[in-house]
Design goal:
Layout (H helix, E strand, L loop, with lengths): L36 H16 L1
Protein name: Cobalt chelatase
């Protein structure tokens, strides 16, 4: 008897349970619309200033 094959099957490993709401490739954020590094840096600086207040 093969005891290894007994029991419930194992779930898939490394597979996300859901898709992210802001993932690239969706209607909201298409693949070719990544923000530039300057845009990201400006956003980070603005958030840092907001956190100081």
């Amino acid at each position: 008897m093969d005891y290894k094959a007994a029991g419930a099957p194992k779930p898939a490993k490394g597979q996300p349970r859901h898709s992210e709401h802001n993932a690239y490739g969706s209607k909201k954020t298409p693949f070719n619309s990544r923000p530039s590094k300057a845009d990201l840096l400006a956003k980070m600086k603005a958030n840092a200033e907001k956190a100081k207040k």
